[in-house]
Amino acid sequence: MVATNAIAPRTGNVSAGTSIFAMVVLERPLREVHHELDVVTTPVGDPVAMVHCNNGASELAGWVGLFTRFAAAAGSPLEADAVYETLFREALEGEPDAGGLLAYNHLAGEPIAGLDEGRPLFVRTPESRLTLANVFRAQLYGVFGTLALGMRVLDDEGVGLDRMYAHGGMFRTAGVAQRFLAGALGAPVSVAETASEGGAWGMAVLAAFRAAVRAGSTADLASYLTDRVFAGPAPVTAEPDPADVAGFSAYLDRYRAGLAVERAAVDSL
């Protein structure tokens, strides 16, 4: 929360790494208990609903590694960062619903999806459009799939959300994962220059804030973050594209239905 300056009500953050989670600062307590949600607080004590998923970008990294090796085997080796950028940019050319493809990133169990164990799967039907662009749009959507299931619970609770702030390595390629996340959440997603930093940087900011409090130069975390830590260039914000919102919604409907395939894989393999 501190690393993204998402401590005000109706704001939240998404952190995408080995795992992925979203934290939304609430205006009021939740009406019911939900197994998909944990309730925590901001550093100043405001209630926060947290959607935590065990599986994040690790399966995506495996696919990128496959293409990194292909480039090397073809005699045109590329650095991993270049492969990520190439494949992410290609995903922008994919169909809004990823052409009927499905990617499950479950290397480990995922309680929100009802899975005790993980079975990463890539699924398509004979009618699906198997293109590189659709494959990688599906892989990026897959990183956000289980997270979106939990976020839909917050929607049903009537939780208001004005803006999400994103951080994690997958947002280093500007405008791709950020855009797809905005479509998945149906809310603006902002990415700051520090987006590739994570919790360790946020803890360092909190330590600096504590030192400032002791020195008597500040007493308010929100002002400290806004006026000092994030006083530089404004974050880049992606508004949800209606086509992406509709496409991800269609993807998520198939994703939810296809969880039966995931459970069968756990039972059988």
From TrEMBL:
Name of protein: Carbohydrate kinase FGGY C-terminal domain-containing protein
Domain of life: Bacteria
Keyword presence, Kinase: yes
InterPro entries (alphabetical): ATPase_NBD (IPR043129), FGGY_C (IPR018485), FGGY_Carb_Kinase (IPR050406)
Matches recorded under Pfam families: FGGY_C (PF02782)
SUPFAM superfamilies (alphabetical): Actin-like ATPase domain
Keywords tagged on the record: Carbohydrate metabolism, Kinase, Transferase, Xylose metabolism
Family that this chain belongs to: Belongs to the FGGY kinase family.
Keyword Kinase: yes
Domain Carbohydrate kinase FGGY C-terminal: 13-209
Bilayer-crossing regions: none
